[in-house]
Specification:
single chain, mainly alpha, two-stranded antiparallel ribbon, 4 strands
C-alpha cells in the first residue's frame, strides 16, 4: 500500500504541472478559468501519456523517460510559478479558514485517497493481464515499440495508450517489481468527482434537494467504482476507458447545467475524447460530442481556436497511429478494411480478420469463431440469459432509454415539445455508443459505461426537465404535492443505491481482508512456462493454459514461429508463414 501511495504522489507531482501548463497555454488570453483541480490532473495524465507514447518510438519507457518527464515538469512549474504560487496560497487559505467547509472536504478526499490506495494494493488480477497485459507493458519497459510484435502474439498488437502510461509509472527500472497503479489513480480521481453528489460541493446535489443528469451519472460512477474496487489493481485498458468516459460525460453535463457559454472547456473535453479513443477504440462514438464546440467555433468564425484544437487532437492521436503501424503493419488493428501499408512486419490479413471475429464472438458469449455469422435473433437471447441479474436490469433500462430518446427526438423534430439540443447531443452520444456496443461485441466489461450512462443521462435528463420549474415553485410556496413526491422519489432512489453499494463495499473489504501488501503492491501473477529457441534467443510459452504473466519474457500463449527483422528481438518480427 505504501508503494501505491508513493507512486500516486509521484504521479500527482509529474502530471499536475504538465496539465496546468497545457491549460495555462490554452486559456491564456481568454476569460475562462478552470474550476476543478482534477481538470489539471486529467489533462496532465493525457499529456504525459502522449509524451510516453512518443518516447516509446525511440526507446524503452523507463528511467530516461522519467528523467526527461521530471525536467519538463520543473520547466512547466518554473514558467507558471506565479500562477501556481497564487493557487497554492488560495487553497491553503481556504483550508486554514475553513471556507465553505474546506477542511471537511479535504479530510473526505484524504479518506478516499487512502481507501483507494488500499484497494489498488491488493485484489484480483484480471485474466487478460496474465494473458497479454503484463507482457505488453514489459515490452514497452524493455524496448518501447517493436515492429511486428503482433506476429509473436496477435494480442500484443492491441495497442492501448493505457499500457504505455502503466509502463511509465511501473518503476521497473528501479530493479524491483513492476508496479501497476495507474488505473487505481484514475479510479480515485473519478471517486473524488462522483462523491460530490452527496453534497461535498455544489448546489446540484442530494444535499440541496435537487438532482440533475450529471448527478445520476455520478451515482452510476460510484456503482462502477464499487464493482471494480477489488479489480483496479489490473492494468486492463477497459478500466482506463470506462473511468475516463465517466469523467468526460459528468464534467460535460455539469458545464451544460451551469450554462457555461465558452467553447473552450467543451473543446478540451473533446480532445480528451480523442485521447479516450487511443485507450480503446470502442470509445470512438463519444467523439460525436465534438459537434457542439465545433458548431459554436465555426459560427463565431474562431478559425485560430479551431486550428489550435485540431492541432491538439492531431498531436494526441499521432503517436497512437504510429504505434499501430509499427506493432501490426495496419492502421487500426485488427480491422483490415483500411489497407495502406506494405511492410515486412505486417500481420497477415487472414490472422487479423480471424482475430477481429474472435473479439466479436467472445463478446457474444461464444468461444467458437465459426459462430460469427449467426443471426442476432439467435445469439442475443443466449447472451442476455447469461448476464447477471443486475446487468440484465441495466441493459433493459438502457434499451428502454434509447426507445424513449427516439420518441423524444421525433417529438422535437415535429415541434411537439421543446428541448435543449446540447443535452440531446450528449444523450445521442451515449445511446449511440450503447447501440454500437450491443450490436457488435457486447461483453459487459467492454461497454458497461454505456450500459450505466445511457439510462442515467436520458432518464436523468427527463427527470431534471420535469423538475426544472420546481425550484421557483418551492421558493414561492406553490409547488404541488406531485412535484414534491417526484423530487423525493429521485433523492430516495439515489440515496438507496449509494447506501447499498457503500455497504456492499464495506462487506467486501471485511470479507476479503488479508493482513498483507501494506508495503509493496501485490505483484503480477506468474505461471509455469517452458522455453524454446528462435535464432538462439529463448522464448517461453505456458505448460498449461494460455497465461504467462510478467516474469517469463518474451513469451506468448503458444509456441510461435517468427522471423527476426534484424540481429535481436528489439529489431522486430515478421510472420514465420
Amino acid at each position: 500500500m505504501l508503494s501505491v501511495i508513493a507512486i500516486w504522489i509521484y504521479m500527482f507531482l509529474t502530471t499536475f504541472p504538465v496539465g496546468y501548463g497545457i491549460m495555462y497555454a490554452v486559456t491564456r488570453g481568454t476569460k475562462y478559468r478552470v474550476k476543478h483541480i482534477d481538470t489539471y490532473l486529467i489533462c496532465g495524465i493525457a499529456g504525459v501519456t502522449v509524451y510516453a507514447q512518443f518516447a516509446s518510438l525511440f526507446g524503452p519507457v523507463g528511467l530516461m523517460a522519467n528523467v526527461i518527464l521530471c525536467v519538463v515538469n520543473l520547466l512547466a512549474a518554473w514558467i507558471c510559478r506565479h500562477e501556481l504560487g497564487s493557487m497554492t496560497r488560495e487553497v491553503w487559505g481556504n483550508i486554514r479558514d475553513n471556507r465553505l467547509g474546506e477542511r471537511g472536504r479535504m479530510f473526505g478526499i484524504l479518506f478516499l485517497f487512502l481507501l483507494f490506495a488500499y484497494g489498488a494494493s491488493r485484489g484480483i488480477i484480471h485474466y487478460d493481464t496474465g494473458l497479454y497485459h503484463a507482457q505488453s507493458i514489459r515490452w514497452i519497459e524493455e524496448y518501447g515499440v517493436v515492429k511486428g510484435l503482433g506476429n509473436l502474439h496477435c494480442r500484443l498488437a492491441y495497442n492501448s495508450s493505457s499500457f504505455v502510461l502503466s509502463a511509465l509509472y511501473s518503476m521497473a527500472f528501479l530493479g524491483g517489481q513492476s508496479y501497476h497503479c495507474a488505473a487505481g489513480w484514475l479510479a480515485f480521481l473519478l471517486a473524488k468527482v462522483c462523491i460530490e453528489v452527496i453534497g461535498m460541493q455544489g448546489k446540484g446535489t442530494i444535499r440541496y434537494g435537487r438532482l440533475r443528469a450529471s448527478d445520476f451519472a455520478k451515482v452510476m460512477g460510484i456503482y462502477y467504482l464499487v464493482n471494480i474496487f477489488d479489480e483496479m489493481i489490473s492494468p486492463a485498458s477497459d478500466y482506463f476507458m470506462v473511468l475516463l468516459a465517466f469523467y468526460l460525460i459528468i464534467r460535460w453535463l455539469e458545464l451544460l447545467e451551469e450554462n457555461v457559454q465558452s467553447a473552450l472547456p467543451y473543446a478540451m473535453l473533446s480532445v480528451l475524447g480523442v485521447f479516450l479513443m487511443t485507450v480503446k477504440l470502442s470509445a470512438a462514438l463519444i467523439l460525436l460530442l465534438v459537434i457542439y464546440p465545433a458548431y459554436y467555433l465555426v459560427k463565431r468564425k474562431s478559425w485560430r481556436e479551431i486550428a489550435k484544437y485540431i492541432i491538439l487532437g492531431f498531436v494526441t492521436v499521432l503517436p497512437f497511429i504510429i504505434r499501430n503501424i509499427l506493432l501490426s503493419g495496419w492502421l487500426v488493428y485488427p480491422f483490415t478494411q483500411i489497407d495502406l501499408f506494405d511492410v515486412l512486419w505486417k500481420i497477415p490479413k487472414g490472422v487479423a480478420d480471424y482475430d477481429a471475429k474472435e473479439i466479436q464472438v467472445w463478446g457474444r458469449g461464444y468461444a467458437d469463431v465459426n459462430r460469427y455469422d449467426i443471426s442476432v435473433k439467435e445469439w442475443m437471447p443466449e447472451w442476455f440469459g447469461s448476464l447477471a441479474g443486475s446487468d440484465k436490469l441495466f441493459v433493459l433500462a438502457a434499451v428502454a432509454s434509447v426507445c424513449i430518446l427516439f420518441v423524444y427526438a421525433v417529438g422535437m423534430l415535429c415541434r411537439l415539445w421543446k428541448g435543449r439540443w446540447d443535452i440531446f447531443l450528449v444523450q445521442i452520444a451515449v445511446a449511440g455508443s450503447f447501440a454500437f456496443w450491443l450490436c457488435t461485441s457486447p461483453l459487459i466489461r467492454y461497454g458497461c459505461v454505456y450500459v450505466y450512462l445511457t439510462p442515467a443521462v436520458i432518464l436523468g435528463g427527463i427527470y431534471d426537465k420535469l423538475l426544472s420549474g420546481a425550484e421557483e415553485r418551492r421558493r414561492t410556496g406553490t409547488i404541488s404535492f406531485r412535484w414534491k413526491m417526484l423530487r423525493m422519489c429521485g433523492i430516495v432512489a439515489v440515496w438507496f443505491l449509494f447506501g447499498y453499494k457503500c455497504a456492499a463495499l464495506g462487506g467486501e473489504i471485511m470479507g476479503s481482508f488479508v493482513n498483507d501488501y501494506w508495503i509493496a503492491q501485490k505483484d503480477y501473477e506468474n505461471y509455469k512456462t517452458q522455453s524454446y529457441q528462435i535464432e538462439g534467443i529463448d522464448f517461453y510459452y505456458p505448460v498449461q493454459g494460455d497465461q504467462v504473466g510478467y516474469d517469463s519474457f518474451p513469451s506468448a500463449p503458444v509456441r510461435t514461429e517468427v522471423r527476426f527483422l534484424g540481429q535481436n528481438i528489439g529489431d522486430g518480427f515478421a510472420s514465420g508463414n
